[in-house]
Each structure stands twice: as C-alpha cells, then as structure tokens.
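ok so i was messing around last nite and threw this chain in just to see what happens. nothing serious, just curious
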Amino acid sequence: MASGLFETQSDDDGPSTPNSLSLVFIGSAEDGFVDAGKNFAVDGVSRIRFGRTIGGSRIYVEDDTAGIRIGIPHPWVSGEQCQVEFDWSAAPTMSLRDLRSRNGTRVENNQVVGTAGLRTGQVFEVGRTFWMLRPGPPDSNETPPTEKIDPLYGPLFSSLGSTLLGVAASDVPVLVLGETGTGKERLARVLHEYSGRRGEFVPMRLGAYSDAELPGALVGSRRSSVPSLIDRADGGTLFLTDVASLSPRMQARLRSILARALEGRGRKRRDIRLVSASAVDLRRLVDERQFRPELYARLAGVELALPPLRSRRDRLGAMIRSFAEARPHDGLRLSTRAFRYALSHRWPYNIRELRYALTAAQNVASDAGRINLAALEEVLRAGEQFSSDSSHIS
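result:
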C-alpha cells in the first residue's frame, strides 16, 4: 500500500486476488463527477490504455490492439497518458506505467516514475480523473435504483443490490449493521417506504431510556392517554436503535414485550414490521454470551450490513454528485486537490461526516463557494463537530 492514509478495498479489508475484475471511474471534480461510478469489464485483457479524446464530453471505452482504451475528454490528460498491464497466468497481477505524460500519473497520491505495482482497491489518478480496479464483475452503468431512493446514501446502499428491495417487500424482521454515520436509519426508512405499509415509521433509540423507563415507553401506561410506541407502530414499522446497549435484564424484557405485541399473547396482536440497528456485531455478542440468543433471533430475520465509507472509495464521486444534485441551489463544486484529499481521508463518521464536511467547507470556502483544499482541510481537522449525534442520521 502506498500510504498509511489509504485503505485497499476488498471484501476482507486485505489484499485480494480476484478471479474477475472491473475498472471503476471514481470521478473527476473538473466535470462535476458527471460519469462517476461508471465501470467496465476488464477480464482477460492484456492492458488498459488511457488517453485524451478530442470532441465529445463523456468518457468512453473502445477496443485496442492489446486490450481496451479509455478515452477521456479532459485537457489535463495527455494523448497517451498511461496504461495498466495485466498478467493473468496465475492470480492476476497488475502494474501501472506512465507513458511520459505531461501531468503525470499517481497511485494513492504517489507519483509514478516509469512503472509501479497496482492492486485492487487502490486509487490511481490519470490527469485529474480518479480510477480503481475492483474485484468482481461490473455493475450496470444505469443509475442504481438505490440512488433514486436516496440521493446521498443511495450510492453506498447500492452494495446491497436487489436484496434491499426484495427484503423491503416482506414482513421479515431486519437487523441493520454498520458503523456510526453509515445511514442505518436512512436504510430503515427506505425499507418502510418500500414495504407498502400505510402505518407510521416509529424510531426508538433504546439507549436514551433507563431500564425503568423503557417498558413504559414501549407499551404505555393505563394512566396515560399518550399512545405507546407499539400502538403508534401498529400497521407500520418500529425501528429500534442501540440494541447492543441493553442490559441482560432489559434484553429479556424487550423480547417478552415484542412477543406479546407481535404474537398477541394476552392482548391484541399488533401488525408491526420490526427493523433494528446496531453498530456492534450482535452475533459476536451472542457468542460471547453478552446478548440473549432468543432476542437476537427475534430481531435478525435478515441482516443487512452497511459498509464503511473508507471501504467504498469507488463510490465517493457518485456520492458527492448525488449530494450536489439534491441541493441544486447551492452549486456545490470541489477542486481536484480537495477531492484528492477526500479520497485519502478515513471518514470515521462515514456519510454523516461527508455530508457535514461538504456543507461546512462550502460555507468557509473563499473561491466563490467552490470547495478548495484549504477549506476541506480546515473543516475535517476540526473534527469534533462530526461526533455530535443527529436525530435524523444514524
């Protein structure tokens, strides 16, 4: 790996030797990330050559004598900029050769002199455009349905593929796993929206209640006229967060409350879709005897895991484009140096941090609202503001 700032992307966060590869265009700040996320099959090719194309405004791919050629309509790209060379004799190995380009070629922000080794998940830069070789076959180059569902978080949800919409249409309980800021509540709202349920989406942050308060909030009190959360969720979705924070005693109590409500034990049966979220792997807690297996079985009919942003850098350009499209009045723009820095940042608070960083950096940018490197560095180094909780982002 070229730099400690960067993390090679693979299924197990380690080096990979895939049988199938795809080339992903992460994006370019110079054209507003118009083609960000576009990807191409590269299995079996001897090389991929990158160079400038004259005319047109979109990136394209064409057959070359020994592989494929990527035409890039940017003035910062040389006529013949660089090429990736493959050896498929065993596990595929790759190298990146600069073809004496005018503006140079980089791997993980390190200048390539002659030829450099290249691995899947590493970012390489070709004349202010950013690319990655990713394990697996290419995705469709049509706009993923998840991006239509959610403008900002959709590109990261796309890793769930068709599973997301298939699960949404069922009544099976869903457990959403992911680090803070990966969009667990946003995903739960997508599941509710596409479930066809006419009832309410009712979020409940379990960690906000004491052991004495939690049962009353769920089932209500005979002396109160305020509907309980379970009553409100009847016909809709009950979304439980912070489930790993429950004490063993409250885990047993929650299971009992859910059993009575969902199975009608002793009182009216409620028609509730149950979605839960945790930043901690509950299966591991069950194995360590820190979480009751019977409650885990109640919550985790299906598990959906949201990846951290640092492991999906191939989607960063598409996310920024989606965020800009959701706020057309703001005219959100980045410089290449700012985007290069964004690709090196680890994003510990994930999409939540990305969203806040773009908004804050645009406010402090001195270049007519264009986010430059200094503005983004200033915001991200402040850091503290991103750890604060937000009721609508989870």
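not much to say yet. The chain has three domains: 21-135, 145-305, 309-387.
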